[in-house]
Amino acid sequence: AAMVKEAIRVFARVKPLGRRQQAGSYSVDDEEEPLPSLEITVPRDLADGFINNKRESYKFKFQKIFDQESKQDVVFDSIAKPVAECVLAGYNGTIFAYGQTGSGKTFTITGGAERYSDRGIIPRTLSYIFDQLQKDSSKVYTTHVSYLEIYNECGYDLLDPRHEASRLEDLPKVMIMEDSDQNIHLKNLSLQQATNEEEALNLLFLGDTNRMIAETPMNQASSRSHCIFTIHLSSKEPGSATLRRSKLHLVDLAGSERVAKTGIGGHLLTEAKYINLSLHYLEQVIIALAEKNRSHIPYRNSMMTSVLRDSLGGNCMTTMIATLAIDKRNIDESISTCKFAQRVALIKNEAVLNEEIDPRLMIVHLKKEIQDLKDELALVTGKQRTSELSQEELLQLDELIETFLKDNDPDSTLDVGADMRKIKYCFIHMKQIMNCPMTSDKKLLLQDTSEERDSNKEAGEELEKLKGLLQQRDNEINILVNMLKKEKKKARDAFFQLNATSAGSTVLEQSPSIKLEESQSSSRCFNLKEAKDFSSSVHRLPFLSREKGGKMSFGCQEAFEVFKWDHADSITIEDNKQLLKQRFDEAKCLGEKLNEVRNKINHLKGKITQRQIQRAALAVSNPSEELTFDPVEENLRMQIEEEKKSYKRVYNHFKGLKVEIEHLQLLTEKVNMKLQKEFVVWWSEEAKNLQQEKPEMVTSPNTVTVYPQFIKSSQHLSTNSFSETTRDSPNEDPAAKNSITFNNPTLKTRTPPSLSTSIPLTGDSQADADILAFIKARQNILQKKGKSCQ
Ligand code: ADP
Ligand code: MG
Questions:
Q1: What is the pLDDT of residue 742?
Q2: Residues ≥6 apart with Cβ < 8 Å to 328
């Protein structure tokens, strides 16, 4: 807070001389630097009374000296107006008049009763302050006045309306109260509000009247009591909670005259005592304050010093007016007053700007500001702002957060607008995501902050559910892995079993009339079109090879490779392959030899033609010579005949080789078919066994009607070499009794349809596809074979 540190300003005012008063010897020097001076000279006749008979003069410094002719308005302007300004600014101020009775204290502070121009500092200050308040519309002011009289250490409220009816002694005493911060409070002193100059002046007159009523010749209240008229001012700027409070004390002290002690021998002693004890204490306080490093100031010794504590050496702009009645008889008192004034002038005060925050005002102010801001926001956003976000807004925020979190762009931002509620919600939501990353986003998105506990519980349940699902999936994977291992083992074992039983080949022809139940409705059901696509992709041999892949499942492929590897027939196939290679090579040689022989024959034919041309030319040139037998030509013809024999011999050999090769090819094909048939039988059997072992894996009820399903077909065989494949494959499948067996009516067979067999479908679309693809592929081979063997 602003602080003004300055000494108490001390003025002097000299009362005009009365008509019969003898002037004292004094001089005023207004020009003296640094301060004007008042020199008082002790008159010679008075000085004669003293022992040393010495003429004395005293010089005193004052802020300003108002001589006898000084008028009230000038005194006000010079002394009171600056203090009033400070009070209006929020500082405390005190103006007190000190002097002997009759020196003009009351005249200066309150004024003379006869003329308007004699108005003193109080009415002029009131007038000035209310004038200033009216001019200043930037602040709201409140004005109160109090009027305290202190008589014999008792305080009286001069504004108490009971004054008229009661004796001073019967009125409630004003008590000094001190709070924990050592602030002085006056109990029973009324603060009367004065909204204007007139009201304030009425209160002043009321107090003065009460004072006069109480005054009797016996108590001489006017000279023995102190009067403190206080203007209480508070101000604040509109809309601000900062309150400024200031007080202006206008103090009319009791007469400072002392009781002169008459010394032995009738001599007047210079030592005198205050009539009013409280002034003695006032002087003690002043002396203490003037001394440096004095820690204890005896304010509490009197009520007057207690009340004026802030005005003396405290938070106040204080001004003293020393009133002097410098007639010849009052020189001593005047000198005493001036001496007192000089001490007071040494006191430095620290005036502090009295600002305080009114909590009630602050709350009211903040509430209003909040409402204003809400209104403003509603105006700008077009929406009435409530403390809670709506369910709709929360869902929108959830979407924004989700989008933001999924955005890989490092520059992406989450913009929810300038709404603290939304920003706070986003942070809470992020925290939730951070704290439970295992919980699905969906769960979080539906969370409401107000139902956090319930949602967390739900999230926990969801977590447990998912953990359970995960465990279930783990178990299922383990089962599948075991199955795969078992399948591999069985694939190896199966070779020996099947080798012993030597299952026959299945020969069938797929008919367009074959209808697979639920082929259209069930996803697990075998799809005919799929089978066709598949078979077309695998009918290129070698069938079921890993290299060709196709749509055969990995397990099936691997199983077939193992199966084939271990099968004895594969040796036959390999032998046949070797033999075929030999025969092909032989045939190739024979082919080359045939070409060679043909070329030789053609060459010999050419030679014969040449010989005949030569002979003809000779006959033309030599007509006498007759065309007789040519031994050369005959020789050439013989050679041609020999070559032709050779050609026929080689050609027959070649033709024989071709038959053998074709036969070998058929044999290889046959063994291959047998191997595949055995595999298919074994595979379908394994598939069925797996389903029986792991019934939980078959979850679709459709498979009951689909599995097991048997397709019977037939295929003619034109060569006896395939006769061993025509017997029905032994089918010990217990599910076979459910099979659908039918004869294809469209089948054009040249052999009786005795070569029928049943192929079980597993109900597994992949396995079924594999099997049917195999069937289709083999069918193509057999058809080709049939043609080639015709
Ligand atoms: P105090 O209050 O100090 O006892 P007062 O103010 O009552 O003295 O003054 C005593 C008398 O002197 C009053 O009648 C008052 O009108 C008159 N008086 C005092 N000072 C002046 C002055 N400056 N000009 C004219 N009259 C004055
Ligand atoms: Mg007086």
A1: 33
A2: 21, 22, 23, 24, 43, 46
Rounded Cα distance, 274 and 255, in Å: 9
**Pocket residues: Cβ below 6 A from ligand 1:** 15-16, 99, 101-107, 112, 223, 255, 323
Taking the CB of residue 646, how many other CB atoms lie within 10 A of it?
Answer: 16
Q: Which of 73-77, 489-493, 671-675 has the lowest mean pLDDT?
A: 489-493
Look at ligand 1, atom 23, and give the residue with the nearest C-alpha: 15
> Do 541 and 780 form a contact (C-beta atoms < 8 A)?
no
Residue with tokens 């090579």: 585
pLDDT of residue 79: 97
The token duo for 451 is 């139902």
pTM: 0.51
Q: What are the tens digits of pLDDT across the range 661-672?
A: 877 777 777 777
- Tens digits of per-residue pLDDT, 55-80? 588 999 999 999 999 999 999 999 99
Q: Which atom of ligand 1 is the closest one to the Cα of 68?
A: 23
| Cα(112) to centroid(ligand 1), Å | 7
Coil, strand or helix at 151: strand
Provide the token pair at 150: 């202190």
| 524, 765 Cβ separation under 8 angstroms | yes
Q: Which atom of ligand 1 is nearest to the CA of 97?
A: 3
106 alpha carbon – ligand 2 mean position (Å): 4
108 pLDDT above the threshold of 90: yes
Q: Is 550 exposed, middle or buried (0-12, 13-18, 19+ CB in 10 A)?
A: buried
Q: Give, for 320, the enclosing helix (H) or strand (E).
A: strand 317-324
